[in-house]
Design goal:
The complex is a heterodimer of chains A (456) and B (304). By secondary structure, chain A is α+β, with helices and mostly antiparallel strands. Chain A is built from 17 helices and 14 strands. In chain A, helix 8 packs across helix 10 (262-274). The chains are: A alpha+beta (456), B mainly alpha (304).
């Protein structure tokens, strides 16, 4: 009996210890190896001719959030597998809020082969002192990304895109996706027709339209303020229509400009003017539900971006809308961001297949379908067929894709919340605590001065 | 023979205690010690190599970050913890007393309803409230119909109070169940004797119920303090940390995983930096936990 008890107790302990081992992962086994110094010399140029049964089944893993880009990728992946039947691409879609966390975790666990990256703000200008490295720079420093320098398929893209948005420290780590314009006003044609309105060419015309709508009991405008950062989009849209954003950014850093000087106050004042026309409760609207405010007839216009095309089409394919860049002092121009790049994880077990995928993505015909499905301005000379892109093509030559570089990322370490272009949501008009636009501009400059002084 | 039996029992006891002790050491103590260790390094999410940076992460947390914003986050953390602890325990105690009464018809149903949010889990509860309080949701529509204009979770004025409410709503049921268990261990004879002595319901509550329930209440209070100081999920799922709702725990999470409000270059976005913030939070939690624990122990001693 005693022996039985001992054996039982021992078995229980061993079983529990085993369960612990099972939870322990395989850290030693997975000990990171040095990132490859360089990618394989050249990507395969054509689909292998070998029969599928001769090839080992390969699964390439990607992760992204749902939306226009994902729609484009899903179609692309399907075609890729048709051409290379032994390679399956698993695209896991997660919600926007948990995307960065999921991506980082899976990269760290070496469970991704292809990863969406963003080198837009990786190369900080010399004047921006004390800027912490972006997550993509950390990826490069940690050897996470494969060096793609010299790959032939890079030549398919306009070299400016590769140099500006995929390169860091002289090496290329991705192929570009495309450009999203974020200073757009998307409007309901039915409402505009009802009140005899047409697309404005100047700021004053824009304000007159807002006033007409409001006086007729129509909520003029909405935006995705609940998510916080879309307030940056609106500030950037108005600011880029008012003055040169790169000059403003450099001026703030070098001290020749202030958040509250006379020139910058012109931007704040326009923001203040525009804030009178947002729908009641606008800070409860998030970016995902924003298009539904327009399609559902709740507002006449939304401050949107090219990525809204897919959402609007999904809600009501017959909904008639028009789009124009926020007009300003000068001729209207497009302002926005390069929506990053596509890279290969250095730790992938399938580098050849991953390179095949990038080579496939970079083919003109395939890329054309992708950017039209994702509603992005292309990074190579291809035909644009997306309705929203087509209507904005007259402005394409004026595109300033610096939203994230100028507005969001190039800020001194530790700067306070008011020195942020999204800080407009702190106004009492948006249920915030700052009474007026001048007080907010003063707070912004104080926060900026405080952060910069600590860096010196 | 008896000695041998006792020796065997001790060995069994040690063997049985070993697994939870090992689990605690591996899953709790070791990560906690490593957090302290990493707070002096520049470790990132995606690299296994790191360098020691001395006190740089602490300098970044306590000096480079805007002092007003850091203090605001600490203030919010304390308000969150105090409000959740006090309100959750008062409400759960009152509900436990009410639902313990045999005179109340359908009390099992009420208990189940109150406990339901805890069973549903944080994700379901938070998304339910986000939908209810969203634009054109039933709550916002009802408030607008009586002339109250608020963006609720989108409002910098009201979002934090709503997050506190949701946290209490989710966890009050759990506290109530612990209190119910404590209440049912109080002998009914004590209440009968008190009634004979002429004590009213209020006197019975403060002279019998509270003293005899104190050990359960102490556990509830400590659990609420420690749980609320480390709350991330409720904030993340309702506001993502924007609209003045980010506490220290939320900031740590955002910096450690590169999400939400801190996905910029204003913070270093490294595990080392997040670990330094976690140590700062630990100091605050430890201070409050020890202070509260001692206060509760002293009170408990006066009842014994």
């Amino acid at each position: 009996m005693k022996t039985w008890k001992r054996m039982l107790a021992l078995t229980m302990v061993l079983a529990m210890a085993l369960s612990l081992c099972a939870c322990g992962g395989k850290a030693t086994e997975d000990a990171p190896e040095a990132a490859p110094e360089a990618a394989p010399e050249a990507a395969p140029e054509a689909a292998p001719e070998a029969a599928p049964e001769e090839k080992e089944e390969v699964v390439l893993k990607m992760v992204l959030y749902a939306g226009g880009t994902a729609n484009g990728l899903e179609a692309l992946n399907k075609k890729f597998t048709e051409k290379y039947p032994w390679i399956t691409v698993e695209l896991d879609l997660v919600d926007v809020a948990s995307y960065a966390e999921t991506r980082n975790t899976r990269v760290a666990a070496k469970e991704l082969d292809i990863v969406m990256t963003d080198f837009v703000s990786a190369n900080a200008p010399d004047y921006a002192i004390g800027v912490n490295p972006t997550w993509c720079v950390q990826y490069v420093n940690d050897g996470v990304l494969m060096d793609l320098t010299g790959q032939e398929f890079l030549n398919n893209f306009n070299s400016t895109f590769v140099e500006d948005y995929c390169t860091y420290g002289g090496k290329v780590y991705g192929v570009p996706q495309g450009l999203h314009a974020t200073n757009l006003i998307i409007y309901s044609k039915a409402i505009f027709d009802q009140y005899g309105l047409s697309e404005p060419k100047t700021w004053d015309e824009f304000m007159a339209i807002c006033e007409t709508l409001k006086s007729n009991g129509v909520e003029p405008l909405s935006a995705g303020f609940k998510d916080g950062w879309p307030a940056n989009m609106m500030w950037g849209g108005v600011a880029s229509a008012t003055e040169d954003m790169e000059a403003l950014c450099e001026g703030l850093w070098t001290g020749t400009r202030k958040w509250n000087d006379a020139e910058t106050m012109k931007i704040w004042e326009r923001i203040d003017q525009l804030s009178n026309y947002f729908e009641s409760g606008v800070t409860a609207v998030d970016l995902n539900t924003l298009p539904s405010r327009l399609v559902g007839g709740k507002v006449a216009m939304i401050n949107g971006a090219t990525w809204d095309e897919a959402s609007i089409a999904a809600m009501d394919p017959n909904f008639e809308y028009g789009v124009f860049p926020i007009p300003g002092t000068n001729d209207a121009k497009l302002f926005g961001k390069c929506d990053g790049s596509v890279s290969i994880c250095a730790a992938t077990e399938h580098p050849e297949e991953a390179l095949l995928w990038l080579e496939f993505y970079s083919q003109q015909e395939i890329y054309t379908e992708f950017i039209n499905a994702a509603a992005m301005f292309p990074a190579m000379d291809v035909e644009v067929t997306s309705p929203m892109l087509s209507s904005l093509m007259p402005y394409f030559d004026t595109f300033e894709p610096h939203l994230e570089a100028v507005l969001t990322l190039f800020k001194p370490a530790g700067v306070g919340v008011y020195a942020d272009f999204g800080a407009i949501s702190n106004l009492t008009k948006f249920e915030g605590e700052v009474a007026d636009i001048k007080a907010l501009a003063d707070l912004a400059q104080a926060d900026w001065d405080d952060a910069v002084s600590k860096l010196q | 023979m008896i000695a041998k039996k006792h020796g065997w029992n001790r060995r069994v006891m040690i063997l049985c205690m070993l697994p939870p002790i090992v689990i605690y050491l591996v899953m709790v103590l070791l990560p906690s010690c490593l957090t302290f260790f990493y707070s002096f390094t520049n470790a990132t999410r995606t690299s296994s190599t790191f360098e020691f940076v001395g006190l740089q992460n602490y300098i970044d947390v306590l000096w480079h970050q805007n002092a007003r914003d850091t203090l605001a986050a600490i203030k919010r953390t304390l308000i969150f913890a105090i409000a959740v602890t006090v309100l959750q325990n008062v409400i759960s105690l009152l509900m436990a007393v009410l639902f313990n009464s045999k005179a109340l018809k359908g009390r099992d149903l009420y208990r189940a309803i109150v406990f339901l949010p805890y069973v549903l889990g944080v994700t379901v509860c938070c998304f339910t409230w986000v939908l209810m309080m969203g634009m054109d949701g039933p709550i916002m529509t009802a408030l607008q119909s009586i002339g109250i204009e608020s963006s609720l979770l989108g409002s910098k004025k009201h979002a934090f109070a709503i997050v506190i409410f949701i946290q209490i709503w989710m966890n009050a049921g759990y506290s109530m169940v612990l209190n119910l268990a404590g209440l049912q261990s109080i002998p009914l004879e004590l209440y009968e004797a008190a009634e004979i002595d002429g004590a009213g319901k209020v006197a019975q509550f403060f002279r019998i119920t509270i003293p005899l329930l104190w050990s359960t209440l102490s556990i509830n209070i400590l659990l609420a303090i420690i749980g609320s100081l480390g709350t991330v999920q409720t904030i993340l799922l309702t506001t993502g940390g924007v609209n003045n709702t980010s506490t220290l725990a939320m900031r740590i999470y955002a910096d450690a995983f590169g999400i939400g409000v801190s996905q910029t270059t204003t913070t270093p976005q490294t595990q080392g930096y997040a670990a330094a913030q976690a140590i700062v939070l630990f100091v605050i939690v430890a201070f409050f936990a020890i202070f509260t624990f001692n206060a509760l122990r002293k009170k408990e001693a006066t009842y014994e």
